[in-house]
Design brief:
Layout lengths: L7 H41 L3 H6 L2 H43 L1 H8 L2 H22 L1
Helix pairs in contact: 1-3, 3-4
Amino acid sequence: FATFTLSVRENGFTEAARDDLYNTIAIWMIVGERQAKCVRQKYYEAILRQDMSFFDSVSTGDVTTRISSDINLFQEGISEKVGLIIQYVATFITGFVIGFTKGWKLTLVLCSVFPLLAITGGLMGKLLAASTLQGQ
């Protein structure tokens, strides 16, 4: 095993990439908060426009629970998940480029595993989606 040392330039690049990643996730969290606020306001306005008969069939607790749980799921989907997807895609592309520049033969061998990983990831996503729907 070889010991790697980072030069000052590489260390600065690493710190800049880390800071950029943090800023990207923070911005998406802010976007998620703003979108959740907008959806809450629209939902509240829609509730106020309902006839009185609507509130006879739906309890107040159901309305408030629905607002809080659905909006939180929506917010998590926008803020956390989108930021993580961007992070993972950027990491994959960067790793792929570095892999081809440092050791293209090993990278080509690892590319043969990608279809298996994609199929496994797709099946896992479907299973998680099905179990999430059962939990709601």
